[in-house]
Each structure stands twice: as C-alpha cells, then as structure tokens.
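Continuing the series of single-chain predictions for the mutant panel. This is the parent chain; the variants come on the following pages.
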Amino acid sequence: MQVLIGLIIPFLGTTIGSAMVFLMKNNLNPKLEKALLGFAAGVMVAASIWSLIIPSIDLSIEQNLIAWLPASLGFILGIIFLLILDSIIPHLHLATKNPEGMNTDKLQKTTMMVLAVTLHNIPESMAVGVGLASSIYGNNVMSIAATLILSIGIAIQNIPEGAIISMPLKEQGMSKTKAFLLGTLSGIVEPIFGALTIFLTSLVIPILPYLLSFAAGAMIYVVVEELIPESQTGKHSNIGTIGFACGFVLMMILDIALG
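Parent structure:
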C-alpha cells in the first residue's frame, strides 16, 4: 500500500495543479509563472542532492565501491538519457515558439506542450521508483518514509507544473475541462514509469547506486535545460530566483527533518 501511495502522490500533484484552471479566471500572471517555475526547479535540485546523490554515495560505501564512481557515472548517464529523449520527443516550451525534437509538422501546439511536461515527469517518476525500490529490497540507505518525502516534494513541484500546462491551454481557447484533462494526462507517466523502475531495479539490485544518481542526472537536466531558462527569460527573473530558493529550502527541510 505504501508503495502504491508513493507512486500516486506525484500524479495527484499534477492533477491538483491542472485543476487550477477552474479556479483562475484570468491568464496566469507572469510573475506567478516565474515564481512557480523557479520553485519547481529548487525542489528538483534539492531532491536530486539529498534524496538521490547522497544516498547513492552512501550505498556505494556500503557495497565497498569507489564512493564517487557510481554517483558520477550514473549522473552523467542520466543527463545523456534525457538529452536523447529531448532530441527525439517532439515538444514545445512555454518561452519559445519553435518546437524541439523530431519532425513536428503534424502535431498541434497543445500536444507538443503536453509532451514537454510529460518529458519533465519521466525523471521524476524514475526518482520515486528507484527510491521505493531501495526501500522494498531491504536497503537501509533510503527508508519508505524518506521515499515518501521525496514523492511529496515532487508532488509539490508538480502542482505549479500542472497549472503551467493547463492555464496556457485555456488561454488558447480550449475549454477548462479539456485543459484540465490534458494537464492531468501529462502526469500519468509518473506512476507508470515509477512502477517500471521498481520492476527493473528488482532485476539488477547491485546497480542501485547508479540508478539513484541516474535519476538525479535526469532531473538536473530538466532543471538546467528548461525550468531555470524559462524562469529567467524576460522580466521578473528575480522572482524566479526567489522561487528557486524557496523550493530548494522547503525540500531540504522536508528531507532532513522528516526523512
């Protein structure tokens, strides 16, 4: 049951954020958008450090491995993995008009925006999945409680992501219900990829330190490639920076105090 809860919590965050389309009458305020993007980035960076990289190093020491090797190699492979997905999956970011990925001539703008958020959610789901796997298979580095904290932290940053996808869809003339459903759909990948990660980890438990840092690298790629640039584009970039600091500190406190 705890594993199921851990997988579902991040998806609920996206759903709650997408539901903001029913509550907000006007377009998403640019200052609020910057703050939400920065906040999401801060949460992901803190989660990558305290919930993934540090446990990867600790587990490497337990397994008598070179402490820095799995964390370094896994991190780099995670970056490469997201770089490949970023090059293949057609998607469109909020701050740009030019789509990225493979040929996008036949795809609608709304579809590519949903795919962009879906791409964000893949490393987050892997992070939760590998954390749960670490707990399930008797590893002492990450407890179920610590993994649930990671899951809650990701859910918190998924709330603004859900709003950031559903609100622009409404602004483009889409009905509130359809914008909500598409925003929610972008998060369905989280429980699916999380469960898949747990299954794969069960087959290759010795490489768990690499998988932890792999998920961290994938998350940091999203932060550096997309969230931070979008929060710093145009006016009000200082609000994005403040949002980042708040998200980072909140996730750090949750992980240290409750994990």
